[in-house]
Structures are given as structure tokens and as C-alpha cells.
Amino acid sequence: MLSLRTNSAAMSAISAADRAGRAAALAQARLSTGYRVNSAMDDAAGLQIATRLKAQSSGIAVAMRNTQNGISMMQTVEGTVQNIISLYSRMHDLAIQAADGSSTQEDKAALQSEFAAQYDEVWNQLGLQWAGEDLFITRAPQYNAKLWSPFNLQIGESSSDTMTVDLRPVVGQTPLGLKWGTTELQTVLTQNASQTIDDTAQAIDIWSAVGSALGAISNRLEHVYANLANESANTQNATGRILDTDYASETASATSAQMLEQASTAMLKQSNSTASLTLPLVSP
């Protein structure tokens, strides 16, 4: 229908140009920012899912650092435990030598002096701290020796993702070879060398069990870290599939939208001249 008042072709062209313009602007925004979703308008449900995934990824990253810190702490403690085992091994040798009848009182006094020095170093090793907190013994009232009480490692982004470190079943009620006071230490080899052989052997066994338990904890934390790394990678991939721009697809979309915008603009120009076709019909 030819009409002077209603130009249907022009309105269609305007609508097509508007749609093409908005599509081109959207594609250009995605290409310039690198994000497919730049506002909730782009993908409301996708943005909500991606926000949760990003929060999860951030939490996993912190948990990975926690896990690595836990491994470092366990390995530090394990090194100290190995030093303590070496000290008790030497003390065990000294006790065996002192128990032999061929050792004179002068020999035993010399052995006693070295035994006391080794024992003092055990207590020095037990002064190990991690981030200012005592791990084996308590130095001050405000500190608690961490390893002798259960504590949790946060190994995930959920409050339930914890790992309890509890060495009490390994240590039990045994004295860990820490039984000699200042007075007893002066005569332990000269008067009780045979008993000291058993005491130091027991200390070696218990500290070896502690070292084994620490190694098991470190191994478990290594597996936890590997699992977190896998979870982190896949979570970030899922987030990227929702939020990131697919440059191949968006480039094609931008090109198509720009061509449609140009074509609709050309058609708008042509439709505006359609009204002039009515003039010959009304001319005298």
C-alpha cells in the first residue's frame, strides 16, 4: 500500500537498523572487555552461577596455601624429630658403654657429661616454634604446645573441609625420654646405666613413631593439595566458559551485525523515497 502518512518500509528498516546496532554494540563490548557477560542483562543466570564459582575458586586458592603451609610445618617438625632421634641414639650408645664393666668410674663420669649435654640439646630442640607458637613445649603461660593437643587444618573452602592433627594416640602417656631432672641427670649413667639403655631405646621408638605419623600427615596433605589443584583448574575453566568472550564467535557476530546495520541503513534511505511515488497519482 502506498501511503503518505505511514511508511511501513521505513519503520521496518529503522527496527532492523536498531537491532543490528545493538547487536554490533554488544559484540564490540564483549570483544573489548574479553567478557561475554559484562552485566546481569547479558546472562542473569550465568552471572549468578559464575559469581558462586569465582567465590569457590578464591576459597580453593586460600585452601591450597593453607595446605602448603601445613606441609611446610609438618616437614619442619619432622626434621626436628629426626634430630631428637639422633640425640637419643647417641645417648643410647653412651648408656650401653657405661653399663659395661670395663668402664671405669672416670670413664663413666666422662660418658655422663656427654649424656647430659645430649639431653640438654633435646630440650633445646623441643623449643621449636612455628609462627611464634610453641610446637612441643610451653615457654610462657599464654602459649600452648600445639602438637600435644589436637588442632585443625583448614584444607578446603567449606567450613567442614578440615583435617585434624592429633598425635596423642602415637605419644600416649609415655615420657618420650624426658624423665630426668637436674639431680637424676648427674647420676643416670653411674648408677642406672642398664635402666637408661631401656629408657633411651623406648624414647627412640616413640619419637620414631611421631616422625612416622608426621610423614603420614604430610603425605595426606600432598594428596589434598593435588586434589585442590585439580578442583581449582576445573572450577576456573567452568567460570571462563560462562564469563569469557569466544573471540571467534563474537568476531563473526560483530561483522554480521555491522553489515546488517549498513544494509538496513541503506534500505531506510531507499524507503524514504517511496513516498514520492504517490505524487504522480495525485497530480492534475
TrEMBL record:
Its main location: secreted. Residues 6-122 form the Flagellin N-terminal domain. Pfam families: Flagellin_C, Flagellin_N. GO terms for cellular component: bacterial-type flagellum; extracellular region. The keyword Secreted applies. Residues 200-274 form the Flagellin C-terminal domain. Keywords: Bacterial flagellum, Cell projection, Cilium, Flagellum, Secreted. One of its GO terms (molecular function) is structural molecule activity. SUPFAM superfamilies: Phase 1 flagellin. InterPro entries: Flagellin (IPR001492), Flagellin_C (IPR046358), Flagellin_C_sub2 (IPR042187), Flagellin_N (IPR001029). It is found in: Secreted; Bacterial flagellum. Belongs to the bacterial flagellin family. Flagellin is the subunit protein which polymerizes to form the filaments of bacterial flagella. PANTHER family: FLAGELLIN. This is Flagellin. It comes from Duganella fentianensis.
